[in-house]
Each structure stands twice: as structure tokens, then as C-alpha cells.
Amino acid sequence: MTDQDAPATGLHIEPGGIDIPAGKDPIFYVWGEMVPGIGIAASTFAQSVYEHTTLGLREFEAARLRIAQINGCLFCQDWRTEMGGEKVEASFDAAVEAWRTTDAFDERTRLAAEYAERFATDHHNIDAEFWARMHEHYSQQQIVELSMCLGSWIAFGRLNHVLGLDAACVLPNH
């Protein structure tokens, strides 16, 4: 959205108030040019969770979409991860919102959505009962990997939303 107070040559992004020069992609400008020492490293980490995941598509997307819904990041909610040429079904986002009751999820996918929600909203109260259920369906390596993914999505989805980048951008290859 263009702000009337912004210079005629650029774009003023709300609510974070970041000015984007004319002709610049907001994501690439903020993440790559404004703070290259941090932004490029953050971008590399964010991309790594997609390139190096060992998780299956459904649990990966259930966790990712639940974080996107909690964060309110518009383009994260719109994005669908592709693995091996496949994406989740169009109704998957609604199933993620209803993770407690949906019949579209197996236990592993349901746990991924639950973990995402608890990690993002109530991490102090993740209890032994929950961990016992997680260890029935996930290896320790997968729990660490999923935790790192969740941390990435929380941090960077919120960054994009707070700075208003989620409403100003179109994701590449989307």
C-alpha cells in the first residue's frame, strides 16, 4: 500500500513503517539489503528448514500453517510448501485450524499442529504427557528439527507481519 507521506519514489509499508525504494521487492530489500549481515544469515536459516527437512509434507505443513495462523502472517498463510512435486490439499488450512477434531489428520500430523500451537502460545506448559505422546510418533532428531522449524517460522513470520511485509509481497515461485 502506498502511504501519502512517503517519498514519491518509494513505498511505505505499514504497520512497521519501513520505506521501500521504488522498484525494490520489499522482502528482498528488507531481508537482503537493509541489514545484510543479519538478514542474509536469517534468510539462509529460513530457507534451510525447507531444503533440509526430513519431516513429511503433512506434518511439516500442519506445523508451519498453524504458526502462520497464530502469527497472522498473510503470505505465510497463503504459501504452500511443495515436496517431491506434491502439495497439501486446498482444504488443509481449515483442517489445521480444526486440528483437535479434524478427521483429515493422522496422529503424527495432529501432534505437529498441537506442538506448533503450544510452542507459539504456551511453551511454559508443555508437559510430560505431551512429550510422551510426541516420543511415540517422533524421534528425538525429528523433535529437534521440528522445534527449529517452529522457531524459524515464529520469528520470521512475525517479523514479516509486524513490519507489514506480509501484505506487500508476493512470494517467489508462488
Account of the 3D structure:
The chain has 174 residues and is mostly helical. The chain is built from nine helices and two strands. It has helices at residues 26-34, 36-51, 57-71, 74-78, 92-97, 107-121, 128-137, 140-162, 165-168, and strands spanning 10-13, 18-21. It has a two-stranded antiparallel sheet. A hairpin with a 4-residue loop joins β1 (10-13) and β2. The chain starts with 9 loop residues before the first strand and ends in a 6-residue tail after the last helix. Mean pLDDT is 87; it is low at 1-9.
Give the strand content: under 5%
What is the first-to-last residue Cα distance? 20 Å
Biggest sheet: strands side by side, in what order? 1-2
- Based on Cα principal axes, name the global outline: elongated
Write down the secondary-structure element order. EEHHHHHHHHH
Alpha plus pi helix count? 9
Structural class: mainly alpha
- Number of DSSP-assigned strands: 2
Helix content: 55-70%
Q: Radius of gyration over alpha carbons?
A: 17 Å
Any low-confidence stretches, pLDDT <50, length ≥5?
Answer: 1-9
Mean pLDDT: 87
Task: Let me know the largest β-sheet.
Answer: 2 strands, antiparallel
List the helices and strands and how they pair.
Layout: E1 10-13, E2 18-21, H1 26-34, H2 36-51, H3 57-71, H4 74-78, H5 92-97, H6 107-121, H7 128-137, H8 140-162, H9 165-168
Antiparallel strand pairs: 1-2
Helix pairs in contact: 1-2, 2-8, 3-6, 3-8, 6-8
